[in-house]
Amino acid sequence: MANTLVFVDLPSTDVEASTAFYRELFGWTINPRPQGVFHQVVPGEGLHLGLFSETEQHPDPAPLPAQPRSGLHTRVYILVDGPPGDYLNKAVLLGATALWEQTYWEEFNGRHASFLDPWGNQIVVWRANS
């Protein structure tokens, strides 16, 4: 299949800590490839994610110095099996910053909440209404 989204990588200043954060929050399997530099996130049936070191930027052959992030961020949506607000609260306890509390999104008939992980990546947790 051509032109298909394959992977999303999230930058981190501490890939090991990012691994612990996402493993604890979502229960994901995370494979170091290589340890501390790039970790493959296997979230179940969805697309895989990656966590990469801002200093090494694997597999980039010519990494640039990490730049401070500000303004809007790319949003990564995670389908969750419980109330998004519960995941938001757990993420905050693990060190995330809440962006918005659980709210209803009428156009898509579901609920969502959002946070910045401790490394500045915006995550939206989503659950459709039954």
Automatic annotation (TrEMBL):
InterPro entries: Glyas_Bleomycin-R_OHBP_Dase, Glyoxy/Ble-like_N, VOC_core. PROSITE patterns: VOC. Pfam families: Ble-like_N (PF22677). Residues 4-128 form the VOC domain. This is VOC domain-containing protein. It comes from Streptomyces uncialis.
